[in-house]
Amino acid sequence: MAENIIATWRVPGLQKADPQKVYEELRTICDEVTEAKPQDIVNLAKDKSLEIHKCFEWNDTKAAEKWRLHQAVKLTSDLIFKREQTDDGDEPLPVRIFNKTDNGGYKIPERVFKVDDEYQKLLQRAMAELHMFKVKYAVLSELDEILALIP
Q1: Closest among 75, 118, 74 to 99, alpha carbons compared
Q2: 148: burial class by Cβ within 10 Å (0-12, 13-18, 19+)?
Q3: Please, are residues 18 and 51 in contact by the beta-carbon 8 Å criterion?
Q4: What is the average pLDDT value for the chain, to the nearest integer?
Q5: Between the CA of residue 83 and those of 52, 91, 112, what are the distances in Å?
Q6: In whole angstroms, what is the distance from residue 11 CA to residue 40 CA?
Q7: Residue 12: φ, ψ to 5°
Q8: Residue 52: Cβ-neighbour burial (10 angstroms; 0-12, 13-18, 19+)
Q9: Averaged pLDDT, 117-137
Q10: Could you tell me the pTM of the whole model?
C-alpha cells in the first residue's frame, strides 16, 4: 500500500516556501527526511530553482547578523545563576533566566511574576508548549496518563 505524505509547517506563515514541495525536494537526498544531514540540506537549498531555497537567508551579512542574534538568545537562555545564601538558612536555588520578552531578551521569573500581563504571556506560552509536547509524544502509550492531564 502506497503511503501519501502531506507536509505542512508547524508554524503556518513562518516559512515562505510550499511545505509539500520542500518535503519532496528533501526526499531526493534522503528517504526519511528527518534523517537528512544539515549540510546536505544546505547544499540542496543552494539551487535557486528549488522551493527549499526560499527557506534560507542567502545574504551573508544578514545571515551573519541573524546567527549572532541566535547566539545571544542562546547565551542568555543557557545562563544559570545562584542566589547567595541568606541569613535565615534557606538553601540557594538555581534560577534560570527563561522568560523570553517581546524584544528578544529574557527576564528572571520574579520580575515576570510581579507584572500580570507578563505573567499571563508566560502562562500562555507554557500552555502552548505543553500542547506541543502532547502532540509530539502522543504516540508513546507510556505517557498516556500524563498526556491526559494536558488540555
Answers
A1: 118
A2: exposed
A3: yes
A4: 82
A5: 47, 9, 17
A6: 23
A7: -60, 140
A8: buried
A9: 85
A10: 0.54
The DSSP 8-state label assigned to residue 120 in this structure reads H
**Quick check: 84 and 78 in contact, CB under 8 A?**
no
Please report where in the chains the cell 542562546 appears, as a residue.
74
Tracing cell 501519501 back to the chain, one arrives at: 4
**Greatest CA span in the chain, whole angstroms?**
70
- Rounded-to-integer distance, Cα 129 and Cα 151, Å: 11
Q: What is the CA radius of gyration of the chain?
A: 21
CA distance 93 to 33: 42
Per-residue pLDDT of 75-106, as tens digits, reads: 877 776 666 666 665 555 555 545 555 555 56
> pLDDT value at position 97?
46
